[in-house]
Amino acid sequence: MRVGVLVLVGIVLAGLGVAGQSGLPDLIVKSVRVSPGDLEEGQAALIRAVIANVGQGDAVGSFDVIIELNGQELATRSFFELKKERAAEIQIPWKATVGTHTLTVSVDAPFSRIRESSESNNKLSLQFTVSPVMSVRSFNLDIVKLFGRILDETGIALHFKLTDSIFTSVDNAVRAINDAAAALRNASLELGLVRQLVPPALAADTLYRDAEALVALYEGMAESFERIAVMLSIGNFDAVLENAYLLRQKLVALSQKTIADTSFTLIQSAIAQFDRVIALAKELRDLLKGAQGRSQYEVAVELFNAFMAFGDELSACSQAIVKQAEAHAAQFYQGEETLNGAYNSKRSLEIRWSRTILMRLELYDLKSGKLVLCSEEMGPWLGLVTNGSLSTGMYGYRLVGMTKHGVRRIELGRLQIKQSGSIPPLVRQNVPVGMAGGH
After folding, report:
1. Least packed by Cβ within 10 Å: which of 87, 88, 349, 386?
2. What is the CA radius of gyration of the chain?
3. Residue 244: which of 216, 278, 218 has the closest Cα?
4. What is the pLDDT of residues 162-205, one digit of tens each?
């Protein structure tokens, strides 16, 4: 049965009122971001801004969007129309420079050519930091952070304002769900940017095939969110539930994924919260069809709040997944200190990798992809001895390890070396015998 939005007028809060139809556009800067995350000096990045018209009328006539970085104009983009309830994304390529930056995007600036219902929401700023080139960078950790960050943004997007107007509340919920879908669809672009750091010798690793599969799953989740938004906007609760079940299946599939040696099982707590959303949506649907029970208003408010609680849990899970990946990543030491700056070849380099009893290090030339060093198998820690064989520069690394349960582990990354003569011989510990597997 299809239940139109007009039938929902009796659901929420007394004293309902229809929002004023001014007929004027309202241009806003909906979001500003710099992709990818964890930028370092010289890295290729995209400055991205989403411009939207959230007013009651079309924005007809030319207007400009100005992008400023640290108070200096970086770019201007011109528009000639933006229809109501539509959005457009601007992308500006940028080569990252070290430091803390303030990015400001202004729409309909500087002359305010478009008459709007509000002129106070035409600007949005973002502060971000670019670090110096890291001496050690784990590509595994980059991948987990990418997917974790997108899940976090998805959860944050699912927050919306519940007002005294059913029309406004439903509209806010639909916008939030579409924003969540848009966040998930960022995965493909972000992965492409992150992969630009990866040397050819490592680019074909299964890590990136797994990442592409996870992008496809995120796309599927985005599609389910979008369908839920459409069906909610027309009041078709049967179809809302149908697509909610499909979304749940994709969340379960996500909870069964492991990428870059990091499991997504923590998502199960978000699934439990989403089950509450589904139960409330089903209860509300039945009430709207005439079933006896609690008041429609009470269930609707509880449903909206449960949906936002699901977003909170999704964010919390994503942050926990990233922390798990950080704890499992290999740690590089020079002497007893964490490696800070290029590895000085006059001193021994020690690698410690949690849960690993045996490991081997492979180093690759970034440009040619040629294998230039393959260490002996060592454990439970590994010491690197180059004896002057490697030139100063940046190298791709592959760590191949084995846990005490015989599980093979691989970590990819990048290591900066400063060649300053030979290294004193390293005293080796007794190690387990044999580690299966090549490259």
Report:
1. 88
2. 26
3. 278
4. 887 777 888 899 999 999 999 999 999 999 999 998 988 899 99
- HEC profile of 55-93: CCCCEEEEEEEEEEECCEEEEEEEEEEECCCCEEEEEEE
By DSSP bridging, strand 262-263 and strand 258-259 are antiparallel
pLDDT at 380 over 80: yes
**Encoded tokens for 389:** 């064989």
Alpha carbons 63 and 54: distance in angstroms, whole number = 16
**Which pTM was predicted?**
0.88
The answer to whether 391 and 363 have CB atoms below 8 angstroms apart is: no
pLDDT above 80: residue 290:
yes
The closest of 104, 24, 21 to 61, measured between CA atoms, is: 24
Q: How far apart are CA 406 and CA 429, in angstroms?
A: 20
Question: Above 70 in pLDDT, residue 420?
Answer: no
Beta bridge partners of 124: 105
Contacts of 225 (CB under 8 A, 6+ apart): 177, 178, 180, 181, 184, 247
Q: What angle do CA 122, 126, 130 make, to 5 degrees?
A: 150
Of 93, 118, 98, 90, the C-alpha closest to 31 is 90
Contacts for 260 with CB less than 8 Å, ≥ 6 apart: 140, 141, 143, 144, 207, 210, 325, 411
List beta partners, residue 390.
none
Please determine, for residue 128, whether its predicted confidence score (pLDDT) is greater than 70: yes
Read out DSSP for 9-47?
GGTS-SS--PPP------EEEEEEEEESSS-BTT-EEEE
